[in-house]
Write the structure tokens for this entry.
Amino acid sequence: MRSLPSVEPVKASSVARFDHECDVLVVGFGCAGASAAFEAATAGADVLVLERASGPGGSSALSGGELYLGGGTSVQKACGFEDDADNMFAYLAAALGPHADEEKLRLYCDGSVEHFEWFLARGITFNESLFDAPSWMPLTADGLMWLGENAWPYNTIARPVPRGHRPAAEGFGGWLIMEKLVEAAKGAGAACHTDTVATALVVGDEGRVVGVTARRYGETVTYRARGGVVLTTGGFVDSEEMLRQHAPVLLGHGKVSAGLDDGGGIRMAAAIGAATIHMAEVEIALTALPAMVTRGMLVNGLGQRFVNEDVYPGLFSVAAVRHQPGPYWVIIDEEGYEDIPERDRWGVRPEIVAETLAELEETLGMPAGALETTIGVYNRHAERGEDPYFHKDAKWLRPLRAPFAAIDPRLGFVPGDGDAAARGTGAAGFTLGGLRTTVDGAVLDQSGRPIPGLYAAGRASSGIHGEGYISGTSLGDGTFFGRRAGRAAVGEARRADEREAAVGEE
């Protein structure tokens, strides 16, 4: 078992002189850190951002770039959809649950239109067009996409409205979002120290976090924050030991990250008594293409269906990897495959083809008759446009006819992870749990009290998610609550100035 590096806190009294001082110190320059830095600097604070890599961006820059926004944005209206915060909340509470943080989620939904306008003000644009099919990520520049809102059971809980907002870029758009957010933060006055890894929190005698120690080019560097430290260091998917301790379901699978999500920020805060929550919760992306899954079916290693295939693909991925015996297969017929636009195939072509289901079962090592039974039942109901067992939408229902193909998800595409197929698992993921925070990012201790001077946002904290996940909610809640944490840290800095002034007058 590999031991984790020490994150033992440093007493402020042991630091003879701090190398750098600022009002607000942000640790991590992904979407949450950039948003926190922008808001703090805009409010007049002296802001410094530490980034362990040689430049900003992190996992956010490598992401697809979806932003989960709604409530009636101009893009939604231009595409002919009416939405409101209550409708958005109803869907997300179900899709991100059970145990979604409803206090944070309510704020997020109520503030979604304003947050969308905030992105526009940062120079991020969205084309007013809809990609009207299930997908991990469209290879088009459409500004709006469905993310499971129109699939059962969610279409019975909330009025179906698409909320996946995509910046005006074909394919991956995370880089564009980060380019604009970093530009905004630096333009507002935030400075950045790259190649700098925070190693421990510096704590005053009264328990207040007053800074961090870090390593830069092999040297120890100390930073003092007069107001607060905002941890936006990401999750812990890249720490095998932390996965073993908290989320072993991801062990052995690919990582959706920039390779630096080692949980360091979470551990530094936990070392001074910070509480964590939802540490076992993860997002999983199975390398099965929604364009193929919806036109056919997804089955487990026993040849059985287990989900309505038009649901948000992260949900069918979690259902498979967490709850079904593998390997998993996409079963499709020739007509269904030919119906898929070439660009939505991602270069994946069937390698296992058979004229009969018995032959396909034998090739895949399934129990004899299992797949025949599954497809027989499916076809009988599909003839009538029904799916009584799993409720797939009628637009995707039709009987499957020979010849049949089985597509191995391990040959497919996983957002943000190019080595998942090589690892032989067909799945990749990231962690959702982290530090327990207030809606303003204040990190709570084990007694539920805020730790003075310490804030967190993004995947270092536990945001709006419970046991579920929808694309765009990482960038969405990371930026939304990063903004709130940045503003709160400025308030802390001003209170610190007032305290120092009061002492000086005495």
